[in-house]
Design brief:
This protein is an alpha/beta fold. The chain is about 35% helix and about 30% strand. It has helices at about 10-25, 35-45, 65-70, 85-90, 105-125, 135-150, 200-210, and strands spanning about 5, 30-35, 50-55, 75-80, 95-100, 160-165, 170-175, 175-185, 185-190, 195-200, 215-220, 220-225, 230-235, 240-245, 245-250. Helix 1 links the parallel strand 1 (about 5) and strand 2 (about 30-35). Helix 1 packs across helix 5 (about 105-125).
Length: about 260
């Protein structure tokens, strides 16, 4: 039975992909899930899946960085929502990709190619595995190009937040922000001095903020790392983030505990 690992920082996206896979390839066994590149490496080492469905943009180690290691262990299928440069690169044919939201017909086509590749690997002579194949070399070169491209654009991060205050527009530096929290139709922007409401979603903010400065610690919260004073556990075993100059404590969800592994 072929096995797979599903990697995406958004639980609904993982659930959708698993549901679609169950429809088009019911024999495929999902052995594990991961919410970021670091966890993906751990789960891949633990379960040795045949296939890894890998989101590109994730906090911490992104999908392209993780694939440099994972591509040596399994068939990689990138899942992306918007990276036009990456899509153009994938069109070279070195590896498969899926666009979000995942289309059932496209997924079925991808799964048929994966089945053919797995069958070819299973029937290959042992000597065929010695040395890098032309496809493996092409894949490595593609990943290098994608990684260089992503690093070249890491300076284009969001630096100012625009918030309406009455009839005026307030410009808030991201350095002032303690955290962002989802609040029904709005997102709450919390600074030491005040709080504001904006219409930009957490997902949009996460894509635009520097992942080295802002961490997603919960599906409803992104925190400024520089604003963290300490991380503690309560009597229920939950990890709580304490911020500098702010009394409110923020809960760290189970999917994001890896950010504070030293605890």
């Amino acid at each position: 039975m072929p096995t797979a690992l599903v990697v995406d920082d958004e639980t609904p996206m993982r659930e959708q992909l698993k549901s679609r896979l169950a429809e088009v390839w019911p024999e495929l066994h999902i052995v594990a899930e991961a919410a970021n590149g670091i966890a993906a490496l751990e789960q891949a080492q633990l379960h040795a899946p045949d296939i890894i469905f890998l989101d590109i943009r994730m906090p911490g180690k992104n999908g392209i960085e993780a694939a440099r290691t994972l591509a040596q262990q399994a068939q990689i299928v990138f899942v992306t929502a918007y990276d036009e440069y990456a899509i153009q690169a994938f069109e070279q044919g070195a590896m498969d990709y899926l666009l979000k939201p995942v289309d059932a017909e496209r997924l079925a086509s991808t799964c048929r190619r994966l089945q053919q590749r797995l069958a070819a690997v299973a029937s290959a002579e042992p000597s065929a595995h010695s040395g890098a194949s032309p496809q493996a070399e092409q894949m490595e070169q593609l990943l290098k190009q994608l990684l260089q491209h992503s690093q070249a654009h890491k300076t284009d991060y969001l630096r100012w937040i625009q918030a309406s205050v009455g009839a005026s527009l307030r410009m808030i530096s991201t350095k002032e922000v303690l955290f962002f929290r989802s609040d029904e139709k709005y997102t709450r922007v919390q600074t030491e001095a005040a709080e504001y409401l904006i219409r930009k979603s957490l997902k949009e903010l996460e894509d635009e903020l520097n992942p080295e400065e802002f961490w997603r610690i919960h599906r409803s919260c992104i925190v400024n790392v520089q604003a963290i004073s300490e991380v503690t556990r309560d009597f229920r075993g939950r990890q709580l983030v304490q911020l500098k100059g702010h009394a409110e404590k923020l809960e760290v969800s189970r999917n994001h505990l890896h950010l504070f592994q030293q605890m």
